[in-house]
Amino acid sequence: MEGTDDEIDSGSDGSGAFLSASELDDSDSDAEQPLPHQKKRRFDGDDTLGLELVTATVLHGSGAAPAAISSAHIDASEEAEASLLQLEVGDLLREARPNLALETALLELVRTLAALLRALPAVEVAAEGSGAAAAVRGFLSDLAFHPVRPFMFHAPTRVQVVGSLALCAAVRPAPCLDLAVLIPACCLDSKDQLNHRYLAKRALYLAHIASQLEAHPQLGTLTWACLADDPRRPALLLHPPPGTSPAGFCIRLLPAAPPELCPLPKLGPARNNLRSAVSVPAPPPPEVLAAAAAAAAAATKAAAVAAAAAKAARGGRRARPVRGPNPAKQLQERKAAAAAAAKAAEVAAAKAAAAVPPPPQEPKQLATPHYNTSVLQDLLMLPLADACRSAAATCPHFAEAAALLRVWARQQQLSLGADGLTGTFLTLLLVHLLESGKASAAMPAMHLLRTALLALSAPKTFTPGLIMQWRQPGGGGGPAVPPPDVKAWRKAFEVVFVDGSGWLNLAAGVSKSVLAAARGAAARSLRLLSGGSPAAFDAVFLARQRQAALFDYWFHVKVPPTAAAPTAPAAAASGSGSQQLLSDQPGWRSQEARVEALATKALGSRARLVRVFRRTLGPEAQAQVQQQQQQQQAGAGTGGAAFQRGVPSPLQQHVLLGVQVDASAAVRGLDLGPSADKVEAAAAFRSFWGAKAELRRFQDGSIAEAVVWEGEAAQRHLIVDRMVSHILQRHLPPGASVVCHGGVLDAALHRKHSTPEKDVAAARLCEAAAERLGKRLRSLAADSLPLKIVAVQAAAPVLRHAAAFPPLPQLLAGAAADTLVGAHIARCLEPVELLCQLEGSGRWPDSPEAYEKMKAALGCQLAQQLHSTLGVDAAAAEGWVDVLSEGFAFRLLLVTERDAVMQGRAAQPGSGEVAGEDSPPMRTWLQGAVAGVAGHSPAFEGAVRLAKRWVGAHLLSPHLGQEAVELILAHCFTAGGTTDGTPTSSSAAPGGGPPALAAAQPPASRLSGFLRFLHLLAGHPWRVQPLLVDPSGELSAAQRDAITRQHARARAQGTAPALCLATPKDPGGGAWTSSRPSALVLPRIAVLAQRSAAALEALLLGGGASGGSAQASSAAAVNCDAAAAAAAEAAAAEAAAAATAAAVFSSDLAEYDVVIRLRSDALPSAANRLRLGPSGSAAAAVRPPLGPALQAANQQLAALAEAAAAAPGSKHSRSILKGIPQSILAARGRQVVRRELLVGFDPLPLYTAQLQQRLADLAVVCADHVGGTLLALKWRAAALAPAPLRPHTAHLSCPAGSPEAAPAEELLAARGKAGAAAAGGAAVRQGALSAAAVVPDVVGVLADALQLGEGLVASIQLQ
């Protein structure tokens, strides 16, 4: 990088950052030597501050839209579309970027601050003492900084604005103005890049500046922070006085290192500049040492025996003479035996020597690429800023493109965590594209953005390593040292993006997982923008993704602090210091990388993305800011408490791990390993999986290692949790704990007398029974019925994998005896509806009434034929035929091609379109669409069950139908593409859909799907925009636009439904939601969804109850052993999960005015009641105490309920709804008792509908049809105010001021004067009040509700 003129004068070496090969040799000594003092030249004005672009922007206006797009980039057919896009970009930039024309006071403050910094006098700063260094005392101690000479402070050589504001690319919220201060070379010594010396002196330099700025309180308040979440690089934050910056800028002082600090090659990725970063060979295990000692002893003994044998063989002085017939031969044999014994002694001695353990090896210094990067970032800060400013000066739309990139990364949640995509990374990527010719300086902002997104989405961009255009250093003596090659960079870092100097990796802090997430987000964004739809622009730039919903599985991994790593002798002798900083990266960064690597290897092809969110130091900085503010309020001044305690560390104890999975592969029960003949690979596989690995023979005859995850079908969604938990606990240090959240809400799907496994089995039995019944219906002889059944179509939620609770097999309906559950046999059966398509005929009557009677007659003949031919129990009604088969009750609905015509004739003028429940084509389309989504994604069934259970738990069943819930979930799983993530023909134009869903990967777990359902309910603009549900991609862009315009016209006319779900079969969007929810209830649904989503996100991300559990487990880990700590951690996590589930599904009854409690023994669905315990939520509504009139009303209602319970017919009505005892079944027989079964009778929905019909003008009725045991009423706003008498409500009214009106008047007074005034105004608008004004008779209204639910209602209570 070439040196600039205002950095170094003509007498300095312009190539101080680049040295020849002969100058690279380090001396053996690390002692500090003063750098030669060099005279610096200073300048004043905006040209040296780097505000040239800002000044030009202020002069020409900062809120102007980008320049017109050149005709060279678009043709005439795209001119209108380009103009609209230009307007959108202009509006977005005006909203996202602060108006620099209003920041004149801030810019003047920067000039004053720069002049003050340049005028600071030279002074000696002691590293130890109570002076300026006191602010960083702990920091210096953790760095083990022991200077050999006092630190001399000199005014900065150069003060320059860098970063996004200098480029006019700063974006809201909380923009920051970065002010770089160049440390003079005379403040540093040679070899200061070693062992934290430069970083310590850098902190001292900042501490002295902070102490000098404290004398100027008019400049603002001072705080400390960590730059780029690097604990080694503190930064000083200056918060201007209130009113100085309308956009809320803060000024961040960033020290920059002079080029004379050290040659750049000494900071290469393979160099070691931290002598404590060593690799000490681990000593042999004790068992190895014991075995070696035993072997050495055995070998020594064997050598001694062999030596004695050799001596005996050779003979001594007293050896017997050789005698016999052949003395020469005997002498030769004796010599041979002696030689063999000597050789055996030598072998034994060699074995003894080999058995002795080798001496320990010397420690080996490791490369410190991340530490070197911390120094290099300060060295190259100003050259990189100059490069960005040069690119912005040559490219007119560079600033707009850089701002758009920042907005895009923030909306896609790519800037989260310490490893996220920073603004510097994205800006320099634009610079690289311009320098390499892949982007042109004449391109508009959106074209530059597309080019950057193309680079991010292409796998080949960063996989081999990205290197910017290299700049030949100027001057110097001798040839320049070539930068490292790509292999060296890839060995040191996960992601490689090297700057123009060739020595700094701009992506050193970016993890591979973040790059993979950015690649997917960029590809989806490009696909959306290619469609050219206005909604696509909203999806990419305006809709912010929710972090908790982006990943399918979440884990909280708590890793105990690792023991201190062995240090080099020199480092150990130099002093203490923080054990976390002895290596290249802090200890917690190594833990995070280890967790991510283990999870990635374990999941393999199951996972699309595995990411550990690197913990930031933001919470620490916030705590320090608050502490400093308290000190300032107490008059203590800004003492710099931020780094007095030492190097900051993350306050978050656990590691946050998120996993995106493949929906089908996530529930796979087998992980296949290497073949048995691959010995080394099989051994590595067994070492990784431990006892889970086993050798198996497969059907094709192969033998291979495998891991089998056994379990019931209802628990297959927890396989990912089991895998990650097993691997992390196996390979992490003892005491590590893993908290999984895949089944945190499963308790809401449990019911009495059954288990999740039985529910899954019942659903599969029902599907098989329906399939067999359909075949039998189609096999009926043509001559047995007037019209043959040609097709049978499922129409029940259980047959499209969308039932909250599937029906259980019933003994009297033909189920096996072992399927009986509970002590009683259910009397009320849930029908499973089937649409039976009859063959065409021209002999149908033209009258709708006669047509329905004819179909009923056909139903009677069908029931008789089923009973006589197939031997099944069938009963015909006017609209259907009920069939009991294989334990289930099937309801057959006869369908012909004339149904639509007859429905149109029967409909009254002005009644609107036919409801979806009454339209066979609509029900057929719904069945196919929802079943298709469930077939693509196994997670859909669990998500829709949770969604329906949530709707019922919050008493919203009368207001949000189950078909609407299924359609919303189907959209969540297919928005922007199919369930496997591939784009559909219409996914590029998500008009009318939620933008955040269109730009995200489809969910692949029940938890992420349910969370997106809540986000959609809470965040979609239902009043102004329809939700286009198109799972199969049938709608074109033109059709979507037509639906949007049609909804706008209907909304203007007041005929649009409050919640519009437009489908290819229902462009109007009212088939399933025309009458519910109402415009009054819809905001309530959104509020409840927002509350539940916030509670669930707090658990998943670790910001809720899990924080307390982490502290509890930490205390247990201190006071107990590892087993007790793990048990405490598990108990705390289970308690937090239970509290969260209760908070998500529990309804706050204090928000309602009346609670009607029902008899659970009279409800067929009482076994589905939630049993989650108290939620412990602090946000529960608090109602004022009841007044005397309301207390008296409650007493009257209690007396009425007791009288109704004691009535003669009450017990009989309750017994009808109860189950059938076994004794009655044994006494009467199955054939007799089967006649008492009630198919399709559920008293709770019927009672709710009748009660809402009676109280339509007075209250809103809320209930849980899934498994509730109560109803709740909410009085309407104007229901309690005095109003003229109406004939249809006369029996529920009483004169105002009468004793019967006291409860209503007390309720009206409790609502406050504002509510009374509003209600009175509504009454005046209805007509002038007269002396005959009436109010509702509250006791009479509720007594009527009690009488309506005789035998079902247990009590009614006013609140």
UniProtKB/TrEMBL annotation:
Domain of life: Eukaryota
Acidic residues biased stretches: 1-10
InterPro entries for the chain: NOL6/Upt22, Nrap_D1, Nrap_D2, Nrap_D3, Nrap_D4, Nrap_D5, Nrap_D6
Residues of the Nrap protein domain: 178-278, 398-543, 551-732, 747-908, 938-1099, 1149-1356
Gene Ontology CC terms, in alphabetical order: CURI complex; small-subunit processome; UTP-C complex
Compartments it resides in: Nucleus, Nucleolus
Major site of localization recorded for this protein: nucleus
Keyword entries, A-Z: Nucleus, RNA-binding
Single Gene Ontology BP annotation: tRNA export from nucleus
Gene3D superfamilies: 1.10.1410.10
UniProt biased composition (Low complexity): 11-22, 567-583, 621-635
GO molecular-function term, one example from the UniProt record: RNA binding
Disordered: annotated span: 1-43, 567-586, 621-644, 980-1000
Similarity section: Belongs to the NRAP family.
PANTHER family for the chain: NUCLEOLAR PROTEIN 6 (PTHR17972:SF0), NUCLEOLAR RNA-ASSOCIATED PROTEIN (PTHR17972)
Protein name (database record): Nucleolar protein 6
The organism of origin for this protein: Chlorella vulgaris (Green alga)
